[in-house]
Specification:
Length: 59
């Protein structure tokens, strides 16, 4: 997903895109989870998400 978004819409780096995806996958960040995440997307205690290669999402 990140590579597709960078290629088509946002060619300025992958951090902003991945950070947004992580936020959409966290159940404590938004009222409703917008994507279904598999892997370590961080915790409410401030632990950061795992690297892109260790996480997956689906809509």
């Amino acid at each position: 997903v990140v590579g597709d978004v960078i290629g088509k819409y946002h060619p300025h780096g992958d951090f902003a895109v991945y950070d947004t995806i992580v936020r959409m996958a966290q159940p404590f960040s938004l009222r409703y989870m917008l994507v279904d995440g598999q892997g370590n997307f961080g915790s409410i205690d401030g632990d950061s998400a795992a690297a892109m290669r260790y996480t997956e999402i689906r809509l």
